[in-house]
Amino acid sequence: MDGGSFAMMRSLRGRLFVGLTAIILLTGAVGGALAYRWAYSEAIETQDSVLIQIGSFAMSASIRQSRPVTGIDAEAEVAVVELGEAPRGSADDQRLWGLKDGLHNDVYHGQPVRVLLRTRPDASRFAVTQRTEIRTEIAGDMAVRTLLPIAALVPCLLLMTAFVIARSFRPMLHLAGDLDASRVDDIGELPVTGAPSELQPFLGSINGLLGRMRVMMDQQRRFIADAAHELRTPVTALSLQAENLASVDMPAETRDRLDALKSGMRRTKHLLEQLLALARQDAAPSPVSARVELDKIAKGIVSDLLPEAAARNIDLGFAVVEAVAVNGDPLSLMSAIRNLVENAIKFTPNGGAVDLGIYREDGMSVIQIEDTGPGIPPQDLARVSEPFFRGGEPSGEGAGLGLSIVKRIVDHATGSVLFENVAGAGRSGLRVTVRLPAADR
Ligand SMILES: Nc1ncnc2c1ncn2[C@@H]1O[C@H](COP(=O)(O)OP(=O)(O)O)[C@@H](O)[C@H]1O
Ligand SMILES: [Mg+2]
Hints:
Elements: H1 3-10, H2 12-59, E1 69-73, E2 78-84, H3 91-97, E3 102-108, E4 111-119, E5 125-131, H4 132-181, H5 200-246, H6 252-283, E6 290-293, H7 294-311, E7 315-321, E8 325-328, H8 330-347, E9 353-361, E10 364-371, H9 402-412, E11 416-421, E12 430-437
Parallel strand pairs: 7-9
Antiparallel strand pairs: 1-2, 2-5, 3-4, 4-5, 6-8, 9-10, 10-12, 11-12
Helix pairs in contact: 1-2, 2-4, 5-6, 6-9, 7-8, 8-9
Bound molecules: adenosine-5'-diphosphate and magnesium ion.
Protein name: histidine kinase
Catalytic activity: ATP + protein L-histidine = ADP + protein N-phospho-L-histidine
Keywords: Kinase, Membrane, Phosphoprotein, Transferase, Transmembrane, Transmembrane helix, Two-component regulatory system
């Protein structure tokens, strides 16, 4: 058994199909054989009764011929042979005369025949003959014709079986597809009503499991949010104290250490804020939904970040800007775009460029951010929006949470975000494309 047929026997569909096919073929073969045998013997009997009818017909003296008649029925080759009142003629005729009245198998003119002997009231005898070969041929033809309906029925049955099996299993495949399509962070219940009754217990168990997973994930999210929230206060107090220290007179060496401490505090605060933002997005995405003018938001962000870009001689600006709007939470959307532009500036070397494009395409509002940095290694592209992912050689202050926050925000707004490397024409860099359903003008 090769791998394919192994897999087939492991699947219920395969087993059903193989089993039903075997049953149909077996039924067809047995039914066909029985029908053939039955029709064959029926045809032989019918031909005997034809001989008897012709015999009764030839009984009347007026039909009597002085010489043998042949070819009464050209196709069936039935012949009436007059044998006279005493044995005479050829050896064959004489032997036939010797047979009793009734049906016999004999040989006539060197060929096997079925023969009916009759004696008329005036003692003259005659034989009705038919070649055995013709009889079996006719019977065979008739029997084969009874096979035709069966032969036509078997392929039809096979087709219908395959169709019914495929249809019956479709709900299962649909369910699997639904499960596959559901996002890890958004596990809804599988629909139980309308599913085949055999599947209902499974669906119930799966839904129970999904429910427990949801509760667990909620607890985890809440724990992260609470932890980040609880940590914020002491960290803020610590950085305030570090700031206060700065006003105290101290040696240059100590001041260096203090600066390092302050920047450490800043990073920690940033990390906590991002964690909190991520946990909030996860736990309860902002219910606010307003009309958000993306081009205005983007312009605000660009003018905020211009000094930072200028300090590093980065050309930050718009390649295209159209007036587009979406429905969503303005603060979340702003933080998503800001995260992307900040990344682009952060990863672009001094003297590079960051271009924004804002436009409408196929009913979607599109924001594109393109930089001239190193881009992201292809094997990491799919993972950049995982929490804490910072690539093979982490650099800078980030914690690797920015893009996961962006992804949650965009997902919640039923949009998509695509990361791709732009290469060729002497340039490299990352292009991030965010698509959001456009709001009506
Ligand atoms: N514009 C970009 N160019 C190159 N790499 C980038 C860019 N944006 C993000 N990345 C990569 O993706 C990782 C994750 O980004 P992000 O989630 O914003 O984390 P962070 O900025 O805190 O490091 C970054 O550490 C970096 O390796
Ligand atoms: Mg970032």
